[in-house]
Fold:
Amino acid sequence: MYVVAARYYAKEGRDDEVARLLRAMIPISLAEPGCALYTVNRSTEDPRRFLLYEQYRDEASFQAHTASEAFKERVLGQIVPLLESRERDFFETVDPT
Structure:
């Protein structure tokens, strides 16, 4: 599996709007054929801090996700402008042998 861990930090006063927009992305992303898991988490210590944990069948499935109209419109067009910072790390799962 191809894994993305994204850390978002919302601008002051925009955290509830970011949460609402991210919540709307969950069913859209899960409906994509290559998406196995799309989870949005909000910090209990700092409500402006979000962690997205995503699993895709492979890197091509993730690329298809980022090329989708929903991603371009909602994430890049609406969510990213509300963020102070955005960091992403990419992983592959370690499968048991």
Q: What stands out?
A: Strands lie at 2-10, 35-42, 49-56, 83-92. The mean pLDDT is 97. Residues 2-91 form a domain with the Alpha-Beta Plaits fold (CATH 3.30.70.100). The chain is about 35% helix and 35% strand.
